[in-house]
Structure formats: C-alpha cells, structure tokens
TrEMBL record:
UniProt keyword terms in alphabetical order: Aminotransferase, Lyase, Pyridoxal phosphate, Transferase
Catalytic function, reaction form: (sulfur carrier)-H + L-cysteine = (sulfur carrier)-SH + L-alanine
GO molecular function: cysteine desulfurase activity; lyase activity; transaminase activity
PANTHER family for this protein: CYSTEINE DESULFURASE, CYSTEINE DESULFURASE 1, CHLOROPLASTIC
Domain Aminotransferase class V: 26-421
SUPFAM superfamilies found in the cross-reference section: PLP-dependent transferases (SSF53383)
Pfam family, one: Aminotran_5
Origin: domain of life: Bacteria
Cofactor(s) demanded: pyridoxal 5'-phosphate
Database matches in PROSITE patterns: AA_TRANSFER_CLASS_5
Species annotation: Caldithrix abyssi DSM 13497
Name recorded for this polypeptide: Aminotransferase class V
Amino acid sequence: AEKIRPLIIGCEQKVPTLSGEMKPYINFDNAASTPSFKPVLEAINQFMPWYSSIHRGAGFKSQLSTLVYDKTREIVLQYCKAEPQFHTVVYGKNTTELVNKVSKRLMTADDEFVLTTRMEHHSNDLPWRYHQKALFVEVDEKGRLDLEDLRRKLKAYKGKIKLLAMTGASNVTGYINPIYQAAQMAHEYGAQILVDAAQLAPHRPLDMKAQDDPQHIDFLVFSGHKIYAPFGQGALIADIAFLEQGMPDQVGGGVIDIVDNDYAYWTSPPDKDEAGTPNVVGALALARALQVFQEIGLDVIVEHEKELTRYALQKMKEIPGITIYGSDDPQEVDDRLGVITFNLDGYYHAFVSAVLTYEHAIGVRNGCFCAHPYLKRLLKVTPEQNAAFEQRLKEGDHSDIPGAIRMSFGIYNTKQEIDRFIQALKDIKNNKIAGLYRQNKATGEF
Ligand code: PMP
C-alpha cells in the first residue's frame, strides 16, 4: 500500500468531523467508485490540448484523436485477452448502459429466455426482465450461486436459453462466481454468456479466452469509474458478428455508411453502436487505468486485498453482535473480494453509517446496494415484512428500510485504516457516540 498510495489521487485528504476536528478520510466505498490513478490524470492532461472530434475531421488533431481512440480499443482487447479478429470494444457511459445495449439488441424469440441470477446488481437484472423473458438461478443461504440450479435450468430449458447473464463478483457479499465453469455449462446447452465484470475488473485479471475454448466469455462489461479512472466511460467487449446483426439501439451521427431520404445503411461495429461524438478522453482514461493495473501487477493487487480482507474479517468477528452476510471466514478469501456487508445488532444501518461518516471520517455505504432481491434474501426479510416496508415507502416513510452496511477495499487501503474502522465500530457498540442524530423521515437521512 505504501508504494501504491502515491499513485492514487486524494487518499491523504482530511475532512471535517462533528467534533470540529479534521480527520484523515478513509474511503471504504471502493465498490461504488474508486479514486483516480495519478498516471490516468497525467495521461488526460497530456492529451487535453490535442483532443478533437474523431473520424470525421481531416485535421491533425482530429487524426491524432482518432489514433488515440483506436489505440485504447487495442489496449482493452489485449488486457481482456480478447481476439481482435472476433471481438471489438463498444464504449458507453457505464456498465448499466452497455448491459441495456446488449439486452435491447438480443431480441429473443417468444419461446426463448435469458437466464440470470438472484445475486445480480439491478443493472444486470432489470434490463433482462425489461427486454427479455428472464429466468433466475438461485443462491444458497449465504448468497453463493447455486451451480446445481444453474445446470438444472440450462438442462430444463435446453435450446431455449439464449444467454446466461451473470455477475463476475457480487457487489454485496464479494463472492466471485465460477464464470468459466458457468461459461462451459452455458455453451454445452447452446447459450452464450455475458459477464458483468463491474466488480471483478478492479480486483482480478480479465480473460475472455479463445473462442474455440468451451470456457470462453461472449460478452464482458465493466466501468472505468471502478478501475481508478474518472466517471463517464464503460466498455463492452463483444463478438463483431453479434454486433453486425440488428439495429443499433441509438441512431444518429456516426452509426451509418449511407443515408438518403428514405433509407439508411448502418456502418460496421463498433461505430454502429456508438451514436454521436464519443468520449475519447474517457476511453483514454479507462485504457490507461488498465495499463496501470499491469504496471502494478494484478498479483500484487490480489495479494494485498486478500490480506486486508483476512485482517478485517478476523477483527470484525471479535465484535459482539455483528452479523456478516456471505462468508465471514478469514481463511476463505480466495474466491471473494474485499467487500464486506454487515449489521450491528440494535443499530440501524443508516445510523451506523452516519456515525462513521460524521464522527470518524470513514466513508462506507448503507442500504440495499442496488441489489434489493439479493440483500432481502440475505437479511431473511419475510414477505409480510417486505409488504409492510413497501407500504411505508409508498407513504413516504423512509425511516426503517431493510439494509446493511458495506465496506469495500481498494488497492490503496491499509491495515491501519481497518484498525481505525474497528475502533469506531467498538465505540458505537459501547455507545461512545458524541453527536446527536435525528433521522429526517422524508429523506431517511441523519
Ligand atoms: N454491476 C455491478 C456488480 C456493480 O457493482 C455495479 C455498480 N455498483 C454495476 C453493475 C453498475 O455499474 P455502473 O453504475 O457503472 O453502470
């Protein structure tokens, strides 16, 4: 961490707390967004005087921008071990937009389904429910994917499941899914696989595998703002042959070869799927972030984050009355990320998160983490409790929402930060809470 922290923007900042003291800020909300790498911002700064609209202009800057943009695709493809003869990169603003793009394009027939799972972020759940007929693979009590159920469903709907859409890793329990095993199963039963790598990409290497490998990934999606690049760019790596079919989901400039009064010919991928002027700076940032991962070494990142997770779980388990969702075993850190979701008995999640912020300068997240069905399953919310809570919400009462607290590590976090976090949790448990908090019923905020 000492070597990596200088590479990160803003990890040494102090923020005000209720006591008036300025405290060094601890960001344990990396699963939402990470801070930027300095080399990414340096690359952006270097490029700023040179950027211009791509593809259309003949000027020097336009040609340079086009070159840079095309180069970023090469970097992304190479990083994901994709095959340029089969694959291309379609950029969009984030994972959500790109999953929606695939979903709109897929167009299953009346008797076809998309199989997804009960552990998805809403971004890899709702697009399938909205545009396709969706089936769901169940999870076990702890929230781990039920591989038997996956096989059962693929078998039962053989030939009728067009796509298996699953997360590479959960943003709630941190569980890493066996995507290659799942890919093999999906292909065996005639389905393709899409991996939502929004959480996987910042923590593990990405590998599409060769197309003739039964374990290959057909679609891979991730976001720049979770891999230490600023907001505004996501990448979809997909089959050129798939993208060649059908109509682009958005039409306008850049997506056509010919337009006349009463017809238009779509251009080839990836341009066909990037209507309007693209975010060249965002693409540069995303690609540079991937290079920085390679410069640091993924193995270094993996080991450091495992160490943090092991350490945090050991310490958290010592706190009486803590419930950790998913695995709480410090020895089981190989197939999980440094994402730890928990509750403290007797303390409302939003309260804990407010005390952590305003008294301890520790940023976590609370609520349902855009994975309502999954979290409610982990919390064992009964149908009656669920109905009562939905009724309260409809009446505008946001004060007692099912939820939990999530801490999530980045590569720059340290054991000292975890120690401060553990002390803060102990203080809360011992009612060493200085501020007076009242919840605003309308907004649910403290
Ligand atoms: N999938 C997962 C697993 C995520 O954690 C997130 C972000 N929280 C998303 C998808 C959506 O990413 P974005 O907000 O960048 O579209």
